[in-house]
Design a protein that fits this description.
By secondary structure, this protein is α/β, with parallel strands linked by helices. The protein has a single domain, classed as Rossmann fold, CATH 3.40.50. The chain is built from five helices and five strands, in the order E-H-E-H-E-H-E-H-H-E. The longest helix is centred in the C-terminal third of the chain and has 14 residues. The chain starts with a strand and ends with a strand.
Length: 108
């Protein structure tokens, strides 16, 4: 089952919704990364085996530069509702294994 890390650009309601469904998720604040550079989020998520969910296109740029990561799910700000994001991430967590997401970007 996939575990997630939400960066500082993500509404905390998404974390609450995922937890209600039993999905393992950390937020930037919980990980002590609230004001951290994006690279620190990538390092944390890789070390902890967590897929990053973000609305920040800089994470996609890291992927394109060949930076190692445990997986990235990117959704442009304002494109999806909290409920849609929770549903998608919950489904992803059930259907994929961590190895499936290693070094991969999913666009939603």
């Amino acid at each position: 089952m996939i575990r997630f890390h939400l960066d500082q650009h993500v509404d905390s309601a998404i974390a609450r919704g995922l937890r209600r469904r039993g999905v393992d998720v950390t937020t930037a604040a919980e990980a002590g990364l609230q004001d951290a550079a994006d690279e620190q989020h990538v390092s944390y998520a890789l070390r902890e085996g967590r897929v990053i969910f973000t609305r920040d296109a800089d994470f996609v740029a890291f992927h394109e530069q060949g930076v190692a990561h445990a997986g990235i799910v990117y959704s442009k700000q304002g494109r999806r509702s909290v409920g849609e994001v929770v549903n998608f991430l919950d489904l992803l967590s059930q259907c994929m294994e961590p190895d499936d997401m290693q070094g991969r970007v999913e666009y939603f």
